């Protein structure tokens, strides 16, 4: 992937009383999109920390990218087995298992063969038959069932955002916003907009040490359907779901799965978690609810 990394001091400033804090931004083309880290305060981003941010995201790409033929995930999908999974891949597998259980199976990385079949216009029957998280053995070694392949597109960006936030905290930074499609805040408050494809901006949320992820099934289509696929044929119940949680990986995975779950099932899932603060949902008629 051709990456462009740069640092600049934003012309705008953040004011708190009489004190002015500069914003330093690190930005790169990684993980299939733009990664951005905004730091508040007089301390700029040290070159070694910038290098560690890039290395942390590269580690996630090397573990979980579907677009790198030699990534751990690509090798696992090709062979059905991986004897030496890197730590990041094991983390993603375990997180996926947790979210799978929390959402009664709606979050299921084994939908990848179905996604490919629909995107390529092929008969999806065999791909549907391969779906089933219970057939994945985490190990190590990691083993997949017959015909299975995984995707972590519903969680990898949030996981990477958490990694970067942790890195910045360990480096002594106190105010930062990490954006990878999902947002993870270190300190705060930071204002983040929630947008729906049809309605536009529906709310402004303030992050302070937590994270937010938003999913909209109609934001991307594959074939005649939506890009968020129900593992058992579930159709999306919502136009947009936004989840605020302590960690971006959890918010990322839940925002995907909750698109396929009615309100009563979302509430039941929330009762099983102490780290989800709020869910904002736009139904198919355009009405907005919070849970």
Task: Write the topology of this structure.
Elements: E1 6-16, E2 19-30, E3 33-40, H1 47-64, H2 72-79, E4 81-82, H3 87-102, H4 112-119, H5 125-130, E5 142-143, H6 156-170, E6 176-179, E7 183-186, E8 190-196, E9 200-207, E10 211-215, E11 221-222, E12 225-226, E13 238-245, H7 248-258, H8 263-271, E14 276-283, E15 288-290
Antiparallel strand pairs: 1-2, 2-3, 3-6, 4-5, 6-7, 7-10, 8-9, 10-13, 11-12, 13-14, 14-15
Helix pairs in contact: 1-3, 1-6, 6-7
Give structural attributes.
single chain, 291 residues, alpha+beta, 9-stranded antiparallel beta sheet, two-stranded antiparallel sheet, 31% helix, globular, disordered N terminus
Strands across the major sheet, in which order? Answer: 1-2-3-6-7-10-13-14-15
- How helix-rich are the residues, as a percent range? 25-40%
Q: Pairing-aware structural class of the strands and helices?
A: alpha+beta
Our measurement of the CA-to-CA distance between the termini, rounded to an integer number of angstroms, reads: 39 Å
The rough form would be described as globular
From N to C, what is the helix and strand string?
EEEHHEHHHEHEEEEEEEEHHEE
Low-confidence residue ranges:
1-20
Q: Tally the helices: what do you get?
A: 8
Task: Look at the structure and give the mean pLDDT.
Answer: 88
| Proportion of residues in β-strands | 25-35%
Number of strands: 15
Largest sheet geometry? 9 strands, antiparallel
Radius of gyration: 19 Å
């Amino acid at each position: 992937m051709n990456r462009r990394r740069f640092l600049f001091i934003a012309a705008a400033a953040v004011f708190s009383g009489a004190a002015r804090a500069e914003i330093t931004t690190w930005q790169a083309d990684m993980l299939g999109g733009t990664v951005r880290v905004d730091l508040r305060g007089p301390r700029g981003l040290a070159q070694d920390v910038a290098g560690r941010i890039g290395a942390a995201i590269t580690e996630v790409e090397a573990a979980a990218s579907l677009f790198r033929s030699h990534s751990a995930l690509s090798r696992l999908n090709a062979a059905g087995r991986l004897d030496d999974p890197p730590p990041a891949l094991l983390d993603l597998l375990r997180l996926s298992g947790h979210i799978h259980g929390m959402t009664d199976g709606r979050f299921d990385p084994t939908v990848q063969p179905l996604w490919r079949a629909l995107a390529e216009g092929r008969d999806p029957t065999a791909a549907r038959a391969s779906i089933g998280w219970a057939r994945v053995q985490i190990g190590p070694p990691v083993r997949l069932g017959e015909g299975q392949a995984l995707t972590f597109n519903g969680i990898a960006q949030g996981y990477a955002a958490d990694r970067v936030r942790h890195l910045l905290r360990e480096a002594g930074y106190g105010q930062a916003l990490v954006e990878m499609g999902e947002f993870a805040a270190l300190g705060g408050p930071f204002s983040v907009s929630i947008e729906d494809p049809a309605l536009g901006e529906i709310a402004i949320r303030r992050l302070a040490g937590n994270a937010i992820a938003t999913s909209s099934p109609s934001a991307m289509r594959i074939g005649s359907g939506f890009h968020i696929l129900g593992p058992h044929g579930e159709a999306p119940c919502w136009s947009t779901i936004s989840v605020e949680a302590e960690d971006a990986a959890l918010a990322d995975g839940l925002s995907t799965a909750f698109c396929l779950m009615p309100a009563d099932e979302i509430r039941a899932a929330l009762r099983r978690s102490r780290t989800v603060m709020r869910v904002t949902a736009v139904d198919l008629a355009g009405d907005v609810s919070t849970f």
